[in-house]
Recover the amino acids of this structure.
């Protein structure tokens, strides 16, 4: 017997399409939304409806933005000579939260994944090479994830940018702050030893 | 610097109001929604918008339903002489999934929580007593959660229904199926011993 009302079932279906949300969580969320005032559901619906129409990609760095160029690219106080290459707009947001980077960005919108048919043409590699070729960029900081596809993408970019008259850098790899060394995995520990810095 | 576009930020705010969704998860979900086709966001928005207008409470058992009476109360094949009392519509859905209950329900929409100002008048207790007083009900199966407020609500209901000429039952309490006895907590194990059944 179908005891879940169809309208509730449709919401559960839609929520269950989100990443990391299974049917059980989707049901819990939907029932919770139903128990609250309808104004909250409408507010969420309105945010969803305006999302894609309000946000586009910055034509320079390709981050999500309501303006073009985005706030970072448009800011005269930021240093356009350094370009930090990240996989996704979420990575840019994470770096901005640190407050310790004052350069520009370049969002690849993905990583190389040949088995899934994602080659350099599917991500914003050509656009990065064009930015570098334009001559204003003096340093490219590659900040892809330290996962297998992230590293492969970094290697590919390093290879393609080898001949360019720029400084080519990577994020430091090592022990996370606050982590007990005995819990670090051996690859991280090996990287930390390899990249050790002078203590005085 | 506010690098999160306002439209994205509003969606993150709305998502973060859902239970069990913090700002980090909300950001991950919002970025994922933005990366997918806008049709999916619109579909979710449409489900949210129709939710409260399509669904009301069944005037008999108070579950969420698009029809009144709900499908369970309206089904002539179900036994209206047994009423299973649960806290929330989600509990009804869970019991329906078992396929082993063929009676009616009564949704309390909460549990007694005197410290939060939730007394019998705030949940559907009066309505349950009226259903029992109407004379058609022969058994009330109390299926509130086996938590402290769930048990307190059950005790209150048992007290109020003490004089009624009905059978008053509770869900069995014991070892969950597939659980190793050595991992059961001592209260559950004590209940299981207390409620032991004849093996042959």
């Amino acid at each position: 017997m179908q005891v879940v009302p169809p309208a509730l079932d449709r919401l559960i279906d839609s929520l269950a399409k989100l990443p990391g949300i299974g049917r059980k969580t989707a049901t819990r969320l939907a029932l919770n939304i139903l128990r609250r005032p309808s104004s909250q559901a409408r507010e969420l619906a309105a945010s969803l409806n305006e999302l894609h129409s309000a946000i586009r990609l910055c034509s320079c760095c390709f981050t999500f933005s309501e303006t073009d160029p985005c706030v970072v690219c448009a800011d005269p106080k930021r240093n356009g000579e350094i370009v930090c290459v990240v996989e996704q707009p979420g990575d840019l947001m994470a770096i901005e939260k640190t407050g310790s980077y004052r350069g520009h960005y370049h969002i690849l919108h993905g990583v190389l994944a040949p088995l899934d048919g994602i080659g350099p043409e599917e991500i914003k590699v050509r656009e990065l090479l064009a930015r570098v070729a334009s001559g204003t960029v003096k340093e490219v900081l590659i900040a892809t994830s330290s996962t297998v596809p992230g590293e492969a993408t970094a290697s590919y970019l390093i290879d393609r940018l080898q001949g360019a008259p720029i400084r080519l850098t990577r994020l430091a790899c090592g022990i996370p702050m606050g982590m007990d060394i005995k819990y670090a995995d051996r690859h991280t520990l090996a990287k930390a030893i390899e990249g050790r810095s002078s203590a005085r």
